[in-house]
Amino acid sequence: MAANERTFIVFLGPPGSGKGTQARILEKKLGLPQVATGDLFRYNLKNETELGLLAKRYMDAGDLVPDEVTIRMVEERLSREDCAPGAILDGFPRNLHQAVALDEMLASYGGVTVVPLFIVDDDTVVARISGRRVCRNCGAVYHVEFNPPRQDNICDACGSELYQRDDDRPETVKNRLYVYYKQTGPLIGYYFAKGLLEEVDAMQPVDDVTAALEAALAKRGVTV
After folding, report:
1. Which residues have C-beta within 8 Å of that of residue 104, sequence separation ≥ 6?
2. What's the mean pLDDT when you consider all of the chain?
3. CA-CA to 72 of 20 to 30 Å: which in 36, 48, 96, 195?
């Protein structure tokens, strides 16, 4: 690897495939920051940055935030010191326009290193997300099947009520999957054509997914 090259890992997969969980695990093992678009939006909105205020104008008007705003947020984040060795991108790019912009951003650093694709079937996605419950008070997250509270609908940590978020309801999850296939699906072909795609079986227990992910990364010279 040339001196100016960095490690940039792009996670692809539907909602509920475990990308966020694996990104946090990999972040600790590789020392690469997880760059998640959701976190970037929350940071910019909370701190009322120039980009946050710009995004808020669109959101308040009920409009989608343009790609250019998201791209600028990611570019600013990747310019920070902790991204000097690279980053794990979770939720970006979401479409071909953003993918091309990312290629331009990373051109002088060797480009994207590898793109793990988390494979999970639709029914499992719906079950994983629709079973999620969140505490109204402290925000603790549970799952009715995989991580239930000791007492039904009551938070173990603070005793407050648990609820199902609107975007976790089965009909909403199915719509999120539709949006994923429509917008993000073409990226699979894009990165396959570039020879960067590595499939990871995300139907397994978390530790087994981590092992499969590490094996996929090793094929591309990224040793955990």
Report:
1. none
2. 93
3. 195
101-127 pLDDT, tens digit per residue, is 999 999 999 999 999 999 999 999 999
Instruction: Name which of 34, 55, 19, 23 is nearest 128 in CA terms.
Output: 19
What residue segments make up the domains of the chain, in order of their start? 7-125+184-219
- Among all residues, which ones are annotated catalytic? 19, 94, 132, 165, 176
The Cα–Cα gap between 161 and 154 comes to: 5
Instruction: Give me the long-range contacts of 170-174 (CB less than 8 A, separation at least 24).
Output: 170/126, 170/130, 173/15, 173/16, 173/125, 173/126, 173/129, 173/130, 174/122, 174/126
Burial class (CB in 10 A: 0-12, 13-18, 19+), 156: middle
Give the C-alpha separation, 55 to 22, whole Å: 28
**DSSP annotation of 160:** P
Taking the model in full, what pTM does it have? 0.88
- Of 171, 174, 163, 109, the residue nearest 139 (C-alpha): 163
pLDDT interval class at 4 (50, 70, 90): low
Q: Which of 6, 185, 220 is nearest to 99 (CA)?
A: 185
**The token pair that represents 70 in the structure block:** 């998201």
